[in-house]
Amino acid sequence: MKKLLSIILCSAISIASAANSSNSNSVDPILDAATPQSSPSKNTTTKTKKHHKKKAKAAAAPKSNSSQAVATSNRQPKLYSYSGYAMDVSSGEVLVSKNPTAQLPIASITKLMTAMVMLDSGDDLDEYIAISEDDVDHLRNTYSRLKVGMQLRRRDLLLLALMSSENRAAFAIARTAYPGGINEFIRRMNAKAKALGMTNTQFFDPTGLTAQNKSTAIDLAKMVKAAYGYELIREDTTTKGADVMLSSHYTHHYLNSDALVRTSRFQIEVSKTGFINEAGHCLVLYAMVDNRPIAMVFLNSSKSGRLVDAMAVKSYIDRMQ
What we know:
five-stranded antiparallel sheet, Beta-lactamase, globular, 14 strands, three-stranded mixed sheet, alpha+beta
């Protein structure tokens, strides 16, 4: 009996060692599980930026049952997200659709519209903007390393708002973009949404911290398509990380809030994540999949579910070719 137990124990140790060895090179186990092993991603790009000026999240939608994925049709991939949408931007073909007209809170996905409206102002990107008390989040009390009185270039604030979803940065660039202040900026956000044909979208603030900022997956695909037209938005949303000097003695390294960008799983041209309790975890992408420009939208998901959904949609489109 002792000899039999010894054999079983040795076998278990061998199996565990083999499992650990097979995972030693994994960057992200969730993304690894979602990545098809037979078709490696192509045309991967890597971006890293360094900023030598000062600089760079917000808090969750009716809770989705993200523990179980739901199929949208016979052929489409199963999605964890409550609402999901994928469209070929060049042809307009809808490739994946699940609850695409549900109007939901969109959290920091808002910041793509904030960036477009700010850039439309033509303001000097190298002008220094002082963080003020008005930029502080008193609704959810989200943390920020940008202290009141700190001064950063407008282009650095834009980077932080898009790459790291920095709320004070987003509010500051909105507050200072137009003579009418924040109220005029929000008016212009809604006017631009209307001009883009986003008929089921409303904005009440430039950060997405309020659950009143709502849209649909179809509308957000239109916004992502428009955002792709701004070179600086493409650059900032796909930057993996940036060093920003917060004081003469301290430089902080900020990371992109999208793990897909950080791990270069496929060719992403525009990316934005979002999260507050009412919205759940959200993600929008403009990506090249088999040389097709694809807009993807995932709303009210789990933190890992939105990433798995994106990889599943990519794999699904790969198999269509």
